[in-house]
Sequence to fold (203 residues):
Amino acid sequence: MRNRLKVLRAERDWSQGDLAERLDVSRQSVNAIETGKYDPSLPLAFRIADLFGLPIEDIFLKD
Amino acid sequence: MAMYKSPATRRYMIRMAVLMTVYLIALFAAVRIFRHTDIAGVPAYALAIAPALPIIGVFWAVMRFLIEEPDEFIRMLLVRQCLVATGFCLTVMTIWEFLQNFDLLPPGNGGFGAAFFWFIGLGIGAIYNKITMGTIGNCA
Fold:
């Protein structure tokens, strides 16, 4: 699964650490999701979507 | 960059430090008492088992961390680490036992039991996580 996390983060000028803090997860988690090594659970995906104010499908895209 | 440390991680590290300290004390005491006294019967069994209890405590601490850690990615890394450790431990012990069954290795384990190889396996699991996921997570 691809995602637009890096772009959305850059638009807000947030570091991976900033995003991790806002999501209450580790920086490693943000990095793993951004690089496609880890697909988040549905609850975490909803938290990410809520944070960016976007629907999940606008952030996470099918391969 | 600062390492992520959730309250669960901190609890885990404190538990591990306490358990390892208790293990060293129990092991030292057991070895000394068995060498220098004629301890026998129920007390001997209790003393022999004493160093095993903190090791069992380490298994508990690892599994407890798995339950308490709120970060799902860190949890997944630890699950992978434990699976690698379990696979490694079972593989080594199975091969070792068959070599002993056919008298190709002497009986006994020289003090290196299943727990020792499981802990080695945790280290291998951490390396596996580093190579495949780019991080070892936090601990264990």
Helices of chain A lie at 5-11, 16-23, 27-34, 42-52.
